[in-house]
């Protein structure tokens, strides 16, 4: 009995093979391609989220002490919105898109047909375990794929609830959850997938991409990076401060991919900005933020130790101007501001992914762009607070990032008409709204011709006259075509 249980618990290469085979059979049978199947599965996710909100909130509390408001809005309501949008728009998304044709193929018509890739793997991260798992799954379903979802083992209560709910509510012949960590994910990555959608850090992304390369599998990599916030002096200070706090500590206590990572402001303005942060942070989280119910905890002791190391570095530890309190037992770190941090410090050379916010000081606000660009990597998001039109223009023109927001933080995530994804080190590919459908669809080019107007010029024997006419046809100049047809030379 014991060995049977153990056997079942091991998810190895053989088990992965079996899962993929079953999904391939379902896909080949055309199950996932029907519009009705896609609708039924999207409705199932909606129902699953509606009927299990308390359980989901409890799992998130267990894994992260995530405040109920954040769970309810950022994990559940946002996911439901994604489903509702797909249910409303999918009938348009799946239609072939008419394409123009050229004289070269006249007469002809053309269209772009969105076809599902086939069997896809979604690997997700721990910080928003429901949203980051199921948001891509919605896109994959809408596009007609069979799916394996691998949630993060770092949020075990959420992972196990997800596995249970997906099995109960969804078509398990086409959508499966595989739980586990490195061993299980490695077994999955050995298989041939038609697309891999990975959310997490850049180090593992390289492992994922290398595994995908073996089978020439395309990937979407949703990664992170150091997302800067540039703060000008000509602003509404209170609104700016609150919006930075909401994006930093109000998003899983800084453990979010688009959380502000560091602030760049001028030496002159910094004292005013820091004072404003102190005021608003106390207003939001009280005098003892370690006790606040409105802040998530650090996910585990490894991450707690990593963040502590960033704070304890010699050149940084004296720079704390607010917060810095830690509770190792309960994995809590209070909102912490560090002023005038050297750029060669550890904290400025890795993604913080926690409640620490260093400030970098410059002489003029225009110098901020150089600070951001000097990191040599492109962040997932970049933020600017200003009323200066020229500065906004320069920001958009010179800062390369997955997405930019002027005068707010993180909220671009909720705009489904904008693609969400990184560039360079922050990732490749994008999703949200129709971009999710596109991320999981192959855009098949289809050209239709009849048998009329069979152009003799394509066929041998090749002559100079045919060459002239073909050249004119390919170049598309009407006058040249007439000239070639009548054998007139250009001179
Ligand atoms: P994580 O530890 O949960 O890892 C992500 C996934 O990789 C998990 O499913 C995990 O099981 C898998 N994994 C771990 N080791 C592996 C290995 N050796 N081989 C194969 N798979 C393996 O999450 P994380 O990486 O700590 O997440 C934080 C990072 O993710 C940050 O950099 C953050 O910015 C980024 N992130 C990005 C987004 C986005 O949407 N762009 C969202 C959330 C997090």
TrEMBL record:
It catalyses: an aldehyde + NAD(+) + H2O = a carboxylate + NADH + 2 H(+). It comes from Corchorus capsularis. This is Aldehyde dehydrogenase. Residues 12-446 form the Aldehyde dehydrogenase domain. GO terms for molecular function: aldehyde dehydrogenase (NAD+) activity. InterPro entries: Ald_DH/histidinol_DH (IPR016161), Ald_DH_C (IPR016163), Ald_DH_CS_GLU (IPR029510), Ald_DH_N (IPR016162), Aldehyde_DH_dom (IPR015590), Aldehyde_DH_NAD(P) (IPR012394). The active site is at 222, 257. GO terms for biological process: aldehyde metabolic process; response to abscisic acid; response to water deprivation. It comes from the Eukaryota. Belongs to the aldehyde dehydrogenase family.
